[in-house]
Amino acid sequence: MKFDLGAQTLGRLTSQTQSASGDLGTLVRQLIAAVEPLEGSFNGAGRQRFDMFKAHADEVTADLNSSLSAILGGQSGMDRAFHTGDTEMADHAASAVSSANFDAARFSATH
After folding, report:
1. Nearest CA to 73 among 14, 12, 8, 7?
2. Under CATH, which number does the domain 1-76 receive?
3. CB 43 within 8 A of CB 72
4. 106: left (phi over 0), alpha (psi -120 to 50) or beta
5. 3-47 pLDDT per residue, tens
6. Fewest beta carbons less than 10 Å away: which of 56, 61, 86, 103?
7. How is the chain split into domains, by residue range?
């Protein structure tokens, strides 16, 4: 298994998650609209659950969006941490290279 996290991977993931978050509320409402023609054809516990879901659709949508918002916050935090780590690693490497004594590591033939 290969894990490759490019510099733009988390940014793209965050963007895609934001897009999905906007679509989520619409999808819940579309689900309710799609099932409404069937409302009269079932009774009992199924009907009660559907009515409860329908009554709480806005709450369900808000909860889903809140959860996605938390995921987005985590993704943004990971993206910042990745870029900070990448920058720090480059700075430390540059510092190490500038303080290295490459002349001392040379092997010269002395006869």
Report:
1. 14
2. 1.10.287
3. no
4. beta
5. 666 778 778 888 887 777 767 778 888 888 888 888 778 788 988
6. 103
7. 1-76
Model confidence pLDDT, tens digit, residues 57-93: 888 888 888 888 888 888 888 888 888 988 899 999 9
d(CA 75, CA 14) in angstroms, rounded, equals 6
User: Is the pLDDT at 109 greater than 70, yes or no?
Assistant: no
| CA-based nearest residue to 10, from 67, 66, 69, 82 | 82
Q: How many CB atoms lie within 10 A of CB 10?
A: 19
Look at residues 60, 52, 71, 73 and name the one whose alpha carbon lies nearest to residue 27.
Answer: 60
DSSP code of residue 44: T
Q: How far is CA 50 from CA 15, 35, 43, in A?
A: 33, 9, 10
Question: Which tokens belong to 16?
Answer: 């895609």
